[in-house]
Amino acid sequence: MTMYDKGANAERELMKILYANGFSVLRSSGSGVNQLPAPDVIALKEGTILLFECKAWKGNYIYIELQKMMQLDDFAQRSHGNVIAAWKLPHKGWLFIPRNQLKKTRKHFTISKNKALKHAVKLSVLSGMQKTLSY
Length: 135
Hints:
Layout: H1 3-20, E1 24-27, E2 41-45, E3 48-56, E4 61-65, H2 66-79, E5 82-89, E6 93-98, E7 103-104, E8 108-112, H3 113-119, H4 123-126
Parallel strand pairs: 3-5
Antiparallel strand pairs: 1-2, 2-3, 4-8, 5-6, 7-8
Protein backbone atom coordinates (compact mmCIF):
# COMPACT_ATOMS: atom_id res chain seq x y z
CA MET A 1 0.00 0.00 0.00
CA THR A 2 1.40 3.38 -0.97
CA MET A 3 1.57 6.32 1.43
CA TYR A 4 -1.16 8.01 -0.65
CA ASP A 5 -3.44 4.96 -0.35
CA LYS A 6 -2.86 4.76 3.40
CA GLY A 7 -3.70 8.43 3.83
CA ALA A 8 -6.73 8.32 1.52
CA ASN A 9 -8.10 5.25 3.31
CA ALA A 10 -7.67 6.99 6.67
CA GLU A 11 -9.48 10.08 5.35
CA ARG A 12 -12.37 7.91 4.12
CA GLU A 13 -12.55 6.18 7.51
CA LEU A 14 -12.69 9.55 9.26
CA MET A 15 -15.49 10.65 6.92
CA LYS A 16 -17.56 7.61 7.95
CA ILE A 17 -17.00 8.35 11.65
CA LEU A 18 -17.96 12.00 11.21
CA TYR A 19 -21.03 11.10 9.15
CA ALA A 20 -22.15 8.60 11.80
CA ASN A 21 -21.89 11.45 14.31
CA GLY A 22 -24.27 13.68 12.37
CA PHE A 23 -21.84 15.69 10.25
CA SER A 24 -22.11 16.41 6.56
CA VAL A 25 -18.66 15.59 5.19
CA LEU A 26 -16.55 16.04 2.13
CA ARG A 27 -13.05 14.96 1.23
CA SER A 28 -10.76 17.18 -0.77
CA SER A 29 -9.08 14.63 -3.02
CA GLY A 30 -5.49 15.58 -3.75
CA SER A 31 -5.52 18.37 -1.16
CA GLY A 32 -1.74 18.21 -0.92
CA VAL A 33 -1.23 18.92 -4.62
CA ASN A 34 -4.09 21.26 -5.39
CA GLN A 35 -3.17 24.83 -6.38
CA LEU A 36 -5.76 26.26 -4.00
CA PRO A 37 -5.56 25.60 -0.26
CA ALA A 38 -7.89 22.89 1.01
CA PRO A 39 -8.10 20.70 4.10
CA ASP A 40 -8.17 16.92 3.73
CA VAL A 41 -11.69 16.60 5.15
CA ILE A 42 -14.37 19.22 5.81
CA ALA A 43 -17.13 18.46 8.32
CA LEU A 44 -20.26 20.60 8.80
CA LYS A 45 -22.89 20.34 11.50
CA GLU A 46 -25.34 22.95 12.77
CA GLY A 47 -23.01 25.90 12.13
CA THR A 48 -19.86 24.06 13.20
CA ILE A 49 -17.17 23.91 10.51
CA LEU A 50 -14.25 21.56 11.13
CA LEU A 51 -11.26 21.48 8.78
CA PHE A 52 -9.19 18.34 9.21
CA GLU A 53 -5.59 17.77 8.26
CA CYS A 54 -5.27 13.99 8.50
CA LYS A 55 -2.19 11.98 9.38
CA ALA A 56 -2.04 8.19 9.55
CA TRP A 57 1.30 7.71 11.19
CA LYS A 58 2.82 5.27 13.67
CA GLY A 59 5.76 7.48 14.64
CA ASN A 60 6.15 9.57 17.76
CA TYR A 61 5.51 12.90 16.02
CA ILE A 62 3.37 14.26 13.23
CA TYR A 63 4.49 17.12 11.04
CA ILE A 64 2.45 19.54 8.94
CA GLU A 65 4.47 21.64 6.54
CA LEU A 66 4.61 25.33 7.39
CA GLN A 67 3.14 26.41 4.03
CA LYS A 68 0.32 23.85 4.30
CA MET A 69 -0.62 25.14 7.76
CA MET A 70 -0.60 28.73 6.57
CA GLN A 71 -2.96 27.71 3.75
CA LEU A 72 -5.22 25.90 6.23
CA ASP A 73 -5.24 28.98 8.44
CA ASP A 74 -6.28 31.08 5.43
CA PHE A 75 -9.03 28.58 4.55
CA ALA A 76 -10.20 28.65 8.18
CA GLN A 77 -10.32 32.44 8.24
CA ARG A 78 -12.32 32.57 4.98
CA SER A 79 -14.77 29.86 6.07
CA HIS A 80 -14.91 30.64 9.81
CA GLY A 81 -13.87 27.04 10.39
CA ASN A 82 -11.58 25.40 12.93
CA VAL A 83 -8.40 23.58 11.92
CA ILE A 84 -8.02 20.19 13.59
CA ALA A 85 -5.12 17.78 13.16
CA ALA A 86 -6.62 14.29 13.01
CA TRP A 87 -3.98 11.68 13.85
CA LYS A 88 -4.83 8.03 13.31
CA LEU A 89 -2.72 5.85 15.55
CA PRO A 90 -2.47 2.24 14.38
CA HIS A 91 -4.69 -0.08 16.44
CA LYS A 92 -5.70 2.80 18.77
CA GLY A 93 -7.96 5.06 16.76
CA TRP A 94 -8.13 8.80 16.14
CA LEU A 95 -6.76 11.74 18.09
CA PHE A 96 -8.29 15.16 17.37
CA ILE A 97 -5.77 17.88 18.12
CA PRO A 98 -6.79 21.55 18.09
CA ARG A 99 -4.64 23.88 15.98
CA ASN A 100 -3.39 25.79 19.03
CA GLN A 101 -1.73 22.63 20.40
CA LEU A 102 0.63 22.34 17.44
CA LYS A 103 4.11 23.76 17.94
CA LYS A 104 5.64 25.88 15.18
CA THR A 105 9.21 25.10 14.15
CA ARG A 106 11.26 26.57 11.33
CA LYS A 107 9.79 24.20 8.72
CA HIS A 108 6.74 22.56 10.30
CA PHE A 109 3.98 22.54 12.82
CA THR A 110 4.37 19.47 14.98
CA ILE A 111 3.19 17.62 18.06
CA SER A 112 4.52 14.57 19.89
CA LYS A 113 2.39 11.51 20.48
CA ASN A 114 2.60 12.03 24.26
CA LYS A 115 1.42 15.65 24.04
CA ALA A 116 -1.28 14.70 21.51
CA LEU A 117 -2.61 12.04 23.87
CA LYS A 118 -2.80 14.66 26.66
CA HIS A 119 -4.40 17.43 24.60
CA ALA A 120 -6.61 15.55 22.16
CA VAL A 121 -10.27 16.59 22.13
CA LYS A 122 -13.16 14.17 21.96
CA LEU A 123 -15.32 14.23 18.85
CA SER A 124 -18.34 14.99 21.04
CA VAL A 125 -16.64 18.22 22.16
CA LEU A 126 -15.74 19.18 18.57
CA SER A 127 -19.33 18.63 17.49
CA GLY A 128 -20.72 20.76 20.32
CA MET A 129 -22.59 17.83 21.90
CA GLN A 130 -20.38 18.05 24.99
CA LYS A 131 -18.98 21.39 26.18
CA THR A 132 -16.15 20.14 28.38
CA LEU A 133 -14.25 16.95 28.86
CA SER A 134 -15.52 14.73 31.64
CA TYR A 135 -13.05 12.61 33.59
